[in-house]
Amino acid sequence: MHTFEFIRPADQTAAIAAAAQSKTAQQGADVRFLGGGTTLIDLMKLNVETPARVLDINRLPLDKIEAASDGGLKVGAMVRNSDLAYHATVQRDYSVLSQAILQGASAQIRNMATVGGNLLQRTRCVYFRDTAMACNKREPSSGCPAITGHNRTLAILGASEHCIATNPSDMGVALAALEATIHIQGTKGSRAIAFGDFHLLPGNTPHRETVLEPGDLITHVTLPAPIVGSKQIYVKLRDRASYEFALASAAVVLTIANGKVTRARVAMGGVGTKPWRLPEAEAALTGKPANDATFRQAAEAALRNAKPQSENKFKIELAKRCLTYTLRTATAS
Amino acid sequence: MANDDHLPGSEQPNRREFLWTAGTVAAGVFAAYSPANAATDAAAADAAMPAVEGAVPVTLRINGKDHSLRIDPRTTLLDCLRETVALTGTKKGCDHGQCGACTVHVNGRRVLSCLNFAVMHDGEEVTTIEGLGTPEAMHPMQEAFFTHDAYQCGYCTSGQIMSAVALLKEPCGAEDASVKELMSGNICRCGAYANIVAAIQQVRKRA
Fold first, then answer.
1. Residues on chain A touching B176 (C-beta within 8 angstroms)
2. For A149, which of A169, A332, B168, B204 is 20 to 30 Å away at the CA?
3. pLDDT tens for each residue of B152-178
4. Long-range Cβ contact pairs of A184-193 (< 8 A, separation 24 or more)
């Protein structure tokens, strides 16, 4: 691991000022915020991340889960995944989020990993993690060997000719379906970003993964007021039963009245280059009878634009079945 | 599961009991760091450490004793425990957060010591397998692992036990499936999973 200066900023203002010294907030940043460490320290050991300064923000007071004035929930960026998943309000009103978090990683990692860190979780693409290989995300313009190489677990939605890396987050999929908002404090003040606008598609700049600029600190995430009577399910399909990343996962927040779907929010994980919200599926569900025929149509709509790589054509059918099963399970719950 | 409930020493000495005895001897090598010793011993040992370029001060409360150290900020909590403080009960498996062998408790919660820098935990409370019990006075979970033969090579065992002890305080359903799910972050290369679950369930039922 490269040497670095370890700094514990006294407060949020000092943290932001120190981070603003970085040339970028994206891949290769020379200043990094350190939260749970579950991604950053792993990648520092691999020399994928080589920050000159590490800002330990674990003691900033951003670890609260509070009721928001609009009836929603305000979740501090330093809240640990396990504390969020087991929070009574989250389990009652946003259960899809609790389910998604508890199907991710392990109990130890969930005790460490933070909400803010999870939003910045990096891909598990083997080429990104191996500095002996080319990777456009890690080293712009070096190439993407994944496209002709090992891509069984990689993206079928949102990929470009420069990058097909999957976003690995489970939490993010639930936050997409719950229409969360991400709150950022930077050198020029604070701003709120809709969850769907936070992550960027790879396009021809796969090293840019989010809208964050140097000095930007995620302070909290807000969830809108709960949808009363909604059915919420997260289903994750993977190569082993636990402690594994998704091949395909689905988060649904469904409201059904008189046998018809009146409101649907759908997102999928393991298939996209970012947590993948599916307005096409939502449109195919809304106003339709809550039955298998509707669910299959929604799944067809969801995967209509899917483009398989050489090893992951199976993911298209897997994702369709995953979504159909999730919708059916939600309806029956 | 009656066969798994045999007591230590109820059979002829076998390889398992030999290893257990050998482990007890090995623990004696590090007696200076055992919970029974005074804090002054630990402080004296820490002060004698050679200077490291770029080292930063950190105080960790490990198994109830303060250790004031100067370490390279790159030192993971795992390497600090093993190499600096010479508590080698915590094991290095994958060193990338994929196996759980390095599981310890920080402020009472189980974490992976390989994915933390020790400096992050300045002033915090760390508990390792050495702080759980002694060969003479084992923690109930250590005793249950022994009784249920919940290991083969033993390399993952300290991590398994630290996870299992933390699990006792976590929301976990009564059935085996819930235990398996919450223990999935601890990989056992020998495949002692069935006996590990039995050991944990025994402790939970008695609690």
1. none
2. A169
3. 999 999 999 999 999 999 999 999 999
4. A184/A212, A184/A216, A184/A217, A184/A218, A184/A219, A185/A12, A185/A16, A185/A216, A185/A217, A185/A219, A186/A16, A186/A20, A186/A213, A186/A215, A186/A216, A186/A217, A187/A16, A187/A17, A187/A20, A187/A215, A190/A219, A192/A222
